[in-house]
Amino acid sequence: MPEQRTEIASLGEFGLIGRLSEAFENTRPDSITGIGDDAAVIDLEAEYGLLSTDLLLEGVHFDLTFVPLKHLGYKSIAVNISDIAAMNGVPGQVTVSLAVSNRFSVEAVEELYAGIKAACADFRVDLVGGDLSSSRSGLLISVSVFGKVAKDKIVYRNTGRPNDLLCVTGDLGGAYLGLQILEREKQVFLANPGMQPQLEGHDYVIQRQLKPEARMDVIFELEEAGVVPTAMLDVSDGLASDLLHLCSQSSVGALVFEENLPIDEQTYLAATELNLSPITAALNGGEDYELLFTIRQDDYDKVKNNPKISVIGYLTDQAAGAKLATKGGNHIPITAQGWNHF
Amino acid sequence: MPEQRTEIASLGEFGLIGRLSEAFENTRPDSITGIGDDAAVIDLEAEYGLLSTDLLLEGVHFDLTFVPLKHLGYKSIAVNISDIAAMNGVPGQVTVSLAVSNRFSVEAVEELYAGIKAACADFRVDLVGGDLSSSRSGLLISVSVFGKVAKDKIVYRNTGRPNDLLCVTGDLGGAYLGLQILEREKQVFLANPGMQPQLEGHDYVIQRQLKPEARMDVIFELEEAGVVPTAMLDVSDGLASDLLHLCSQSSVGALVFEENLPIDEQTYLAATELNLSPITAALNGGEDYELLFTIRQDDYDKVKNNPKISVIGYLTDQAAGAKLATKGGNHIPITAQGWNHF
């Protein structure tokens, strides 16, 4: 081990990725992008290939006391598909590597794979390989996905321009509040195992947490409508954090209107019950796996009647920064409170 | 959790993979193969894409008391490249997902990435993405690799035919004996921390264990010599286990000549010191990451003078089974004693 010791927590996830990435640069003509977008881009001559990967660890990313294995399997695929969607691509193949401790039976692993299979069917991808290993500490899932996109249809996150309209799919904050509800009921259960969980009226936000969907439906609808976003990424860390990535990589600012943030009724309800701000959940909750994208103003008519898409603001000059226009008329800076597992 | 409980150990790794795979079949025209070969094959029109993935877990696949982080980083890439080599392909891009506990410093992670970088340079691949997470139990590395191969040059493991010559690259058993030497010295050290490790004369086998190479060199030499193997896979679980995969998937038998098994002098030396059979190490040791392949008899002249290639036998009819012709003239069945982590 080297002598100097810098704690990983002092850099955080993005800081460490940045530091490690510095040492690497692409050397191959078919490596179109390196580290830094939702998926890596590989030149296949006729089109681009897309490669992305995600890791899910028990105790860090999920808690099996309230996450059913089948849902977990589904989610492990969906969150990877979401990265391909975020490049405006179509996923084709996935690999799944699994490490399991002897706490898990064959039947438990089969439950997990039933969820993986359901996701493969929903998103029309094939499971083509993987790895299987024992683990000394619970369950671990590593999924990689390969997809393709036409060269003139690929969408990066660094190509937004001032005055582009800022759009988001679905609604925000639900997955975070679903998790808070599940955590609350877990604590109640731990304190008093005889109590029934109080999940009534929270089915939507709980589903948002347990079984997120990748928005391939919107990708296909944009294609049909003849819209190629100018920039796009998926909302995994929270709208604020992901918008700041878009702004920083595109060298732009943004103005988001609080009143335009799409928030489901159940998200408001759960927020009220938990004494949390629904706006904070929408901005910083994370795990929504919706798409955040920008379009040219000329394309507004092509999306305005799509109920799955909300126009929440527009891009501005970089100097203006990323701001939230509140209902009260104030412009306040958007700051990332995203996830830091370290 | 489902009610029935079958222990994973009762099926083993390959048994569980078989059981899980049954539920999946490819649905896409561009998914050329599914689970079952070294890498998945994806149709890119002009050529084939290859996708493979491997998981390395601390305490299961490596022991950091004697594995330097830099070597581990190198090995994590090399073992994935080996899967692409085994399809006669050329690797292009890798993704690395890492989970680390707070036991590790930024500097330690940088050591690991220095090894990853060295392997990327040696094998001419680009690191294009990945994931980074905290872990509650040590270090975990998941690598995926993407490569390409001309459609008429791809080599599967199910296409060997009787009378094809059976070839192996490099030498066998070294990685296993290197591990045994390192394990022995670890025990000595634990019993008496003042003792110096006795590694003299074992540098080659230790290197075989700590820093295996993917045999891309041989892939390029076969290409130059105009040889396309009839079947190929890499020797990761041990010659016996991997040969049985080739035989079963190609529906053939094999006859291997003990006297033709390539075994390094240091492997003999370590085996003698440890009172182990060098032949058993060569057959069942695993982790050599050499290539096991078959060629048409007509191609013999093109490989016979290549010092990196040993012809160790030939394929026979399936009914004859896989046999070892011993120096004493006996034909004994080859059985897999490969790895089972469960």
From TrEMBL, chains A, B:
It catalyses: thiamine phosphate + ATP = thiamine diphosphate + ADP. Mg(2+) 5 binds at D237. It comes from Salmonirosea aquatica. The keyword Iron-sulfur does not apply. Residues 162-318 form the PurM-like C-terminal domain. GO terms for biological process: thiamine biosynthetic process; thiamine diphosphate biosynthetic process. Catalyzes the ATP-dependent phosphorylation of thiamine-monophosphate (TMP) to form thiamine-pyrophosphate (TPP), the active form of vitamin B1. Reaction mechanism of ThiL seems to utilize a direct, inline transfer of the gamma-phosphate of ATP to TMP rather than a phosphorylated enzyme intermediate. Pathway: Cofactor biosynthesis; thiamine diphosphate biosynthesis; thiamine diphosphate from thiamine phosphate: step 1/1. Keywords: ATP-binding, Kinase, Magnesium, Metal-binding, Nucleotide-binding, Thiamine biosynthesis, Transferase. This is Thiamine-monophosphate kinase. Its EC number is 2.7.4.16.
